[in-house]
Design a protein that fits this description.
The structure holds two protein chains of two kinds. Chain A is of the alpha+beta class. Helices cover about 35% and strands about 15% of the residues of chain A. Chain B is of the alpha+beta class. Classes of the chains: A alpha+beta, B alpha+beta.
């Protein structure tokens, strides 16, 4: 077994499909999935707000389901398929360089301010709309009530969820 | 014709980057940097007996371990007292690493630098610090009792004592037809941005140059303070605030111990070093706000007009006072809101406790002041049996009385003088929005269904756009690209959009050509920071003035090139043209070429400006004596005083008769911040403020035990509201322009949160029929108040007694 050159920790090989591509890295067993994505794969769009699974900023899609990447070890993701915020546009079928409908809806509705919590909302809302394509505002509010945002008071995020549903419908996704 | 952008709700230019994961926040930078972690005090008050780091030295991957004894130069001294004040007679500021004593749980004692954060924390866990525990001082009452002192240098635990008085308030109260006294309490909350603090330092040994990235609200402040601490020339230090995941005041405090220690270690180790605050660290070692005990004595006439107002409050400033007494000064002045008492006296004591320091959090002392004033207004109305809105009206400063000088000194040391505002107009809009005059019917209908509802109101005035100044730099490149720089920082307010709107309008260019940089000392070395709802006012006007300078130069150059009078020119879509004959035109990019006479042609555009390119007037130098090369301009805006925004909120709450659960059914906001640059962004600021206000009113508090341990230092236990807790917010705007700046704008950043605690207290009181004097309030606390009320320990409101008798 190989060890980390600087810290001497035993390393484990992890192979994960991230945003459609196979990524392999050697990580210590205790490496969090969030740190693995951010610091080993350089996908810094996934943010860490609390590291205890409450804020939801680090939410990624694991086999399509929203998961807190700060509550998973990287080694636990072995063999799974992960979508981060960087992969949302492609996942939605948007053309190269375009944004996905949920991303566009957040812009249209001013659903973000500092943007730090936003990736967690985008992944959460993406998964939600796949199973609930036409939410009422109350349902939209319920859908995002597991993620913390300190800037927006959530008003425009609720609007953005409904707007995203419209865009998905329009685009026929 | 270019569409006017000022005032348009355009979507934000920063968003495509932020929604696609391409934001660059502090921890997204500096791949490969060493990681710092800290051993922090587990005790609220203790003497450090011994530090044994030997167990950590052989942890593989550890690079360095530092205690106070390792620090040198000014880094070994106390951190700076940022805002001295004559009334701050016992200022106390911490050391970067505690040398002998710790004064709150979370105070840094040892710094570890290692290959990564995991290993750095492993090492922290192996460092043994022996402490001799000393008596903690927790809460305002313990601080006032002064049985134990936080600092020997601060007798009675008093950091500061300040009295301001206009007229003889005590005599006015004594002589008034009616008098009331109120004792009030408001508890601690905190800014709690989703991204904690963080700093990355890169020492370039070849250039002897320090680059600091910090998640700060003041890049220039961090730069100057770190240069001073490290003994580096200012020219050898640069600071960049990258994308910032919220600030709300916590990041205007500077330099944090870590902002000094990380660059110090980076230079010493000649390695990049990064520290990223984790959530627990943010709870126990950054900053809190809000806790005050207040005593109000008020005298008033039969109409509810306040003849004398005498307020004393005790402000918990935590363990140190690096940010001076800005928060209690703001409370003591902004308490007055839209009202004009006959005489006013305010006295405060700022007290040390062995808890996390207290520095401005969105609202910065205003929520407490508004709470005191609005509780008083409700009490007066109830005492007289009058409508609560009518009592407020009776006390309003009227539009024709503007500007209105209260005769006090504000937080900037300048007169507390309102510039404009239409308070009766705001109240009329609020009453219409919430249905004030139909309230009796609403309540009756609810009561018929067995439901208990209440209506609350709160009014405030917010001093915004505080000086001393900000700068703007605008430069047109030969491509026509317009670079705009201002020095203050951005934490989500959309400055890249709002400032671009201003410049695009002033200069006459498409907004897509405008690129705004904030918080980068390389681009604008003179700046103050983002706080006090000041960015739109101070930087907004600065970039407008700079753009006007560029416009003037462009017109000068174009008039010369086109051989026409400047007065005949206009700029449309980035092209200067003769009014009425648009074929006679020259693009700004070409003017940029002409403005910079060159010797060397490095591209096609530059070729036109080279020395053999065309005819020249040999009697004149290539650059005129009173000109500079380049199509660019710089200007500063330095306001004479703050500009005062205002607002009024109303809420309808329902309280469960059995469980005492509190639900906000409606929340209505009237907001007046003068001219709106981007209404969509302003609306978003108001929404966010209300969300934080709801947290402060009903859910958030710092729960310290008697030993000074913060019991709820995580997002599991500190109840920040989710979408499920924040009601739908209904808004309406007034626009009373400020006469104090060219754009007529006032600040909007803090407004939304300011009156919420007062409004919710007012609504719950109205629902329950007994006074609410302590906030925030939980269902458990409300249930306990009901029990005490039923037992006769709490009086009923008079209007409820009358209604039920």
């Amino acid at each position: 077994m190989t060890t980390h050159p600087a810290t001497g920790e035993a390393l484990h090989t992890v192979s994960v499909v991230v945003n459609g591509g196979l990524r392999t890295a050697q990580v210590p067993a205790r490496r969090l999935l969030s740190d693995f994505l951010r610091h080993d794969l350089g996908l810094t769009g996934t943010h860490v707000g609390c590291e205890h699974g409450v804020c939801g900023a680090c939410t990624v899609l694991v086999d399509g389901a929203p998961m807190r990447s700060c509550l998973m070890f990287a080694v636990s993701a072995e063999g799974h398929e992960i979508t981060t915020v960087e992969g949302l546009a492609a996942r939605s079928g948007a053309a190269e360089g375009d944004l996905g409908p949920v991303q566009q809806a957040f812009i249209d509705s001013h659903g973000l301010q500092c943007g730090f919590c936003t990736p967690g909302f985008l992944t959460t809302v993406t998964a939600y709309l796949e199973s609930n394509p036409d939410p009422t505002p109350d349902e939209a509010r319920e859908a995002i009530s597991g993620n913390l945002c300190r800037c927006t008071g959530y008003q425009n995020i609720v609007t953005a969820v409904c707007r995203a549903a419209e865009l998905i419908e329009e685009r026929g996704i | 014709m270019t569409t006017k952008l000022f005032g348009a709700p355009i979507t934000r230019r920063e968003d495509p980057r932020l929604v696609s994961g391409n934001g660059k926040y502090l921890d997204d930078l500096g791949a490969g940097a060493l990681a710092a972690a800290f051993v922090r005090s587990p005790y609220a008050h203790a003497r450090i007996v011994d530090i044994d780091v030997s167990g950590a030295l052989d942890v593989e991957g550890v690079v360095a371990i530092y205690t106070h004894e390792d620090l040198d130069g000014a880094v070994a001294d106390r951190l700076p007292l940022l805002i001295p004040h004559p009334a701050l007679t016992a200022p106390m500021v911490a050391y970067p690493l505690a040398p002998t004593h710790v004064k709150h749980v979370g105070e840094p004692v040892v710094m570890v630098v290692a290959a990564d954060r995991y290993v750095a924390e492993d090492a922290c866990g192996r460092i043994r610090v022996d402490y001799e525990q000393l008596p903690p001082v927790v809460g305002v009452e313990a601080a006032r009792a002064a049985t134990h002192l936080v600092h020997e240098e601060a007798p009675g635990n008093v950091a500061a004592h300040l009295v301001q008085e206009v007229g003889d308030a005590r005599a006015a109260v004594a002589a008034a037809p009616h008098r009331l006294e109120l004792d009030l309490f408001i508890d601690r909350s905190a800014s709690m941005p989703m991204e904690g603090k963080g700093v990355l330092a890169q020492w370039n040994a070849d250039d002897q140059m320090m680059r600091i990235y910090s998640s700060t609200q003041t890049a220039t402040g961090v730069r100057a303070s770190v240069a001073a601490k490290l003994g580096l020339p200012l020219a050898k230090v640069e600071c960049i605030a990258p994308d910032i995941g919220g600030g709300f005041g916590a990041k205007i405090m500077h330099p944090w111990a870590e902002e000094v220690l990380v660059p110090w270690a980076a230079r010493r180790l000649n390695r990049d070093v990064k520290w990223v605050e984790d959530r627990r660290e943010h709870f126990i070692s950054s900053t809190h706000e809000r806790s005050q005990v207040q005593h109000v004595e008020v005298g008033f006439d039969d109409d509810g007009r306040v003849l004398g107002l005498d307020v004393t409050f005790w402000h918990d400033n935590g363990a140190y006072t690096p940010y001076g007494i800005i928060v209690p000064i703001i409370t003591s002045t902004q308490l007055l809101g839209p009202y004009k008492p006959g005489a006013y006296r305010v006295e405060f004591f700022s007290l040390y406790t062995t808890t996390v320091i207290v520095t401005p959090y969105r609202g910065a002392g205003r929520p407490q002041g508004v709470y005191a004033m609005e509780r008083t207004m409700d009490a007066i109305a109830d005492y007289l049996g009058k409508d609560r809105a009518d009592v407020r009206s009776a006390n309003f400063i009227l539009p024709e009385e503007m500007p209105y000088d209260h005769g006090l000194l504000f937080q900037d040391g300048r007169p507390y003088k309102y510039d404009s505002g239409d308070f009766p107009g705001s109240l009329a809009k609020l009453k219409a929005l919430v249905g004030w005059d139909e309230w009796a019917d609403y309540r009756a209908a609810a009561e018929a269904e067995g439901r208990r509802v209440g209506l609350g109101i709160g009014c405030y005035v917010e001093g915004t756009g505080v000086g001393p100044y900000e700068g703007g730099h605008v430069q047109v490149e030969t491509s026509g690209r317009v670079n705009v720089a201002t020095g203050l920082t951005t934490q989500g307010q959309g400055h890249q959009t709002a400032f671009a709107q201003i410049v695009a309008d002033e200069l006459g260019v498409p907004i897509d050509d405008v690129y705004v940089t904030t918080g980068d000392t390389r681009k604008m070395a003179y700046a103050v920071g983002t706080f006090a709802s000041r960015a739109a006012v101070v930087s907004g006007n600065a970039v407008a003035l700079a753009a006007r300078a560029v416009r003037a130069k462009a017109l000068r150059l174009a008039a010369n090139a086109l051989e026409v009078d400047e007065a005949d020119l206009e700029i449309v879509d980035g092209i200067v043209r003769v009014v009425g004959s648009p074929e006679s035109a020259i693009p700004l990019g070409t003017l940029s070429v002409l403005s910079n006479p060159l010797r060397y042609a490095f591209d096609e555009a530059a070729k036109a400006a080279t020395q053999f390119a065309g005819a020249a007037d040999f009697s004149k130098p290539p650059v005129a004596d009173d000109e500079e090369p380049g199509l660019e301009g710089r200007d500063f805006f330095s306001p004479t005083q703050s500009t005062f925004a205002n607002g009024m909120h109303a809420a309808i709450v329902e309280t469960d008769p059995v469980t005492a659960e509190i639900t906000i059914l409606r929340y209505c906001v009237i907001h007046d911040c003068g001219n709106l640059i981007n209404p969509m962004i302003v609306e978003g600021q108001v929404h966010g403020g209300v969300g934080q206000g709801v947290g402060g009113a009903l859910y958030e508090r710092m729960v310290y035990d008697d030993a000074g341990q913060l019991l709820n230092a995580s997002f599991m236990d500190f109840l920040m509201p989710y979408a499920s807790e924040v009601p739908h917010v209904e808004t309406d705007h007034l626009m009373t322009p400020s006469p104090l700046n060219p754009l007529g704008v006032k600040g909007a950043g803090e407004a939304g949160c300011i009156p919420v605690t007062a409004v919710i207290a007012s609504a719950i009181e109205d629902a329950e029929g007994f006074p609410i004097r302590s906030m925030p309030i939980s269902p458990v606390e409300l249930w306990e108040l009901r029990r005490r009320h039923a037992a006769g320990e709490l009086p009923s409101l008079r209007r409820h007694t009358a209604a039920t008798s």
